[in-house]
């Protein structure tokens, strides 16, 4: 029986604990909050995130990272991107070097501009081989995964062998996992779709219409491809689950935290007001900052990302941002 440690008891960490526990694996899930640890161990429910899901008896919670990861076959990092470096440093002393490491975060670290897997390669250097690190990503809202609704995602890793292990570990009849060898492209798609979801939410909140939203999603995909092309990712990846698939679901779903942020901005709320009322992290906020840093540094045109950044961090009126996007100089539709 495989032993799996999950670092992070938020929505997705909890949903994956339910999935993996349901397959008969021994799952240990780490949480900072004592009430979450107590709720899972006593009542088999997370009292803060996806609270209606009853977890299998094979799932145990702990506030000790050592207990969570020591002696496991696989470690799943289910924290927001901005917390990965801090948490990975705490995980490192308890690794034996034989574990498979899987990130399910979707973002790009500020300042370093690293993807989640790149952060893990950096922190675990000398302990865990790069080939043992991979990601699980794609259109997969935690609420629907936990309810066992049909979901299709991608496993990608620095080695195909590890990608296959991730695929086999997570695959169920309702959670289908494809292989993709382009880990960089998969992570870029997963990060940038959150920025576009904020923009899509603004469109909905400001009642700008379906035409605007269709254009936003399409041109958002173009920005994903542009960044991916500059960094050496495969263009085909962005036509798949981690590109277009994740973009569609995050820009349209009621479960999307990033769309929620944008929707409320479109309704006239400030970012500070919105964040004060949320218990979960909207990765797109920090990612918009990171990607704008990158695009300005490398002089890469990413107008939607730039507009979201200006609205979030420089108090630009959303309608003014839309006006700037609509009045840019005329050009051809270039697909790369």
What's the helix and strand layout?
Elements: E1 3-7, H1 11-22, E2 26-30, H2 34-43, E3 59-62, H3 65-69, E4 74-77, H4 81-91, E5 100-103, H5 116-123, E6 133-137, H6 142-146, E7 151-157, H7 160-170, E8 175-179, H8 183-205, H9 210-231, H10 241-252, H11 257-266, H12 271-276, H13 283-297, H14 303-313, H15 318-326
Parallel strand pairs: 1-2, 1-4, 2-3, 4-5, 5-6, 7-8
Antiparallel strand pairs: 6-7
Characterize the overall form: globular
SSE arrangement, N to C:
EHEHEHEHEHEHEHEHHHHHHHH
Summarize the biggest pleated sheet.
8 strands, mixed
Number of domains: 2
Helix and strand content put the structural class at: alpha/beta
Distance from first to last alpha carbon: 46 Å
Number of strands: 8
Count of discrete alpha- or pi-helical segments spanning 4 or more residues? 15
| Content of β-strand | 5-15%
Radius of gyration, in Å, reads 19 Å
Poorly predicted regions are: none
Q: Any guess at the CATH architecture of the largest domain?
A: 3-Layer(aba) Sandwich
Query: Helical amount among residues, as a percent range?
Result: 40-55%
Average pLDDT:
94
CATH superfamily annotation of the largest domain: NAD(P)-binding Rossmann-like Domain
Task: Give the CATH topology of the largest domain.
Answer: Rossmann fold
The main sheet orders its strands as 3-2-1-4-5-6-7-8
CATH level-1 class of the largest domain: Alpha Beta
């Amino acid at each position: 029986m495989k032993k799996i440690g999950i670092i992070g008891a938020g929505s997705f960490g909890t949903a994956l604990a339910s999935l993996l526990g349901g397959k008969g694996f021994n799952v240990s899930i780490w949480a900072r909050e004592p009430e979450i640890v107590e709720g899972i161990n006593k009542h088999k429910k997370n009292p803060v995130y996806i609270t209606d899901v009853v977890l299998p008896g094979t799932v145990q919670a702990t506030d000790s990272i050592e207990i969570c990861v020591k002696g496991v076959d696989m470690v799943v990092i289910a924290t927001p991107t901005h917390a990965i470096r801090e948490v990975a440093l705490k995980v490192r002393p308890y690794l034996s070097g034989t574990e498979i490491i899987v990130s399910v975060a979707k973002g790009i670290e500020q300042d370093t501009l690293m993807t989640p897997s790149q952060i893990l390669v950096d922190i675990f250097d000398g302990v865990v081989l790069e080939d043992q690190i991979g990601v699980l990503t794609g259109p997969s809202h935690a609420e629907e995964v936990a309810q066992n609704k049909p979901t299709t995602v991608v496993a990608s890793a620095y080695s195909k062998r590890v990608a296959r292990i991730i695929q086999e570990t997570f695959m169920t009849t309702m959670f289908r996992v494809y292989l993709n060898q382009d880990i960089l492209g998969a992570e870029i798609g997963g990060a940038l779709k959150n920025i576009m979801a904020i923009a899509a939410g603004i469109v909905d909140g400001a009642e700008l219409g379906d035409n605007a939203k269709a254009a936003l999603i399409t041109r958002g995909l173009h920005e994903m491809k542009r960044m991916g092309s500059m960094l050496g990712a495969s263009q085909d990846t962005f036509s798949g689950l981690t590109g277009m698939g994740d973009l569609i679901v995050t820009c349209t779903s009621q479960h999307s935290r990033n769309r929620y942020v944008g929707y409320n901005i479109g309704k006239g709320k400030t970012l500070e007001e919105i964040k004060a009322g949320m218990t979960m992290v909207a990765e797109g906020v920090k990612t918009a900052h990171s990607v704008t840093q990158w695009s300005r540094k490398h002089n890469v045109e990413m107008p939607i990302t730039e507009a979201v950044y200006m609205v979030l961090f420089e108090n630009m009126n959303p309608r003014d941002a839309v006006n700037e996007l609509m009045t840019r100089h005329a050009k051809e539709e270039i697909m790369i």
